[in-house]
């Protein structure tokens, strides 16, 4: 009787060992495949989180007039371009290197930024005036946020992706009022490009309903 019990016990132990031996291989293989699937997704997620944080820092800095903070995000080689509307005009939109921006933002120098839609009036202002009266004409710290996606759009040609291919952008959108049929919406976009492991602003684009 004792021999029979020992034999039964031995068979049970061997059976358990076989089951244990098989499980790690399956589990490890699944884990490996899972890691391979998430590496790219994790990288994209990290970039999106980083640019959301940068977007919010830029909005806060512009709101309180800390233009030196904004200057630190200007692309070291390509500088930054300012577009009054969705259509980026390489020939007419105002462009600054980081050094020029830091030189002129505290000064009273008046620049030509473009022409107003509808009237065609030439818009002239200092850098500070442009930031206060045009870029931040509404409080974009209270806007709706999007990453690499357009929330606002009108009849103005939007050529961001053509002018800045292979870049990332953030969009800050404020919807229009019911009083004006929703047509008084406003958008502020930041276009980012990576340089030496860090993301910098290469363009600041405003957008709104145009005639």
UniProtKB/TrEMBL annotation:
Per its UniProt entry, which superkingdom is the organism in? Bacteria
Q: Provide the protein name.
A: Lipoprotein
Species: Chryseobacterium formosense
